Amino acid sequence: MFRKLVERIVCSDLAQNKLHAIENNTFCDFKKLEVLSLDRNNLTTIYPETICAPNLRELHLDYNNIQLIASTSFQPLTAIKLINLDYNPILNLPPELFKSTVKTTILRLPFNNISKIDATAFKDLDKVAILRLQTNNIKHVDRKAFFGLNKLKLLQLSGNPIGNFREFNLPNTASMNFLGLSRSYPLKLDENRNRASNPVIIETLDLTNNFLSTIKNLDFGDCRTL
């Protein structure tokens, strides 16, 4: 009886409990589960097979205490479209962490402790439209970190002490609605910054609170509209 009930559940809200851990394969029998809310608990680790609902569309893990995410933690989530990891003390993103989540359109990672973005951090996420990384501790972004994010419309990097903005490439997308770089001191802009291979239209560029003293003509040579 319980098994049949589980197979019919579409949305499961377990937010604001006192969960410290979830046993492997807990959600594997939730064949129709599309939304899983585990926010505002005390989860610390996401192991492989922890969350394996095959048709999951939204996963909310914000406001937990997650520090460790295995590189295959999200491997079963091939249908996922939204992953929310706001407000966790995550230190790093394992290589190819999101390799299997190719249908993801919204990825939220703000208010963590991530210090760098490697070249394969977002590999194969060619459907992502919104990527939020604000208010981490990102000091270095690999020049190929955003390679392949051709549908990205919003990239929020504000509140990070990015030291190599001149080196990494913007996503090779035709247009972006928003690029956030506020509170990114010591942000440095000059004509030597790498550019996307095609011109990028940026509707809104946020550079507030950066203590910038000069902006040269070629700082945004890859943008047709600011």
TrEMBL record:
Matching InterPro entries: Leu-rich_rpt, Leu-rich_rpt_typical-subtyp, LRR_dom_sf, SLRP
Superkingdom, natural source: Eukaryota
Gene3D superfamilies: Ribonuclease Inhibitor
Keywords: Leucine-rich repeat, Repeat
Pfam family name, one: LRR_1
Protein name: LRRNT domain-containing protein
Taxonomic source organism: Trichoplax adhaerens (Trichoplax reptans)
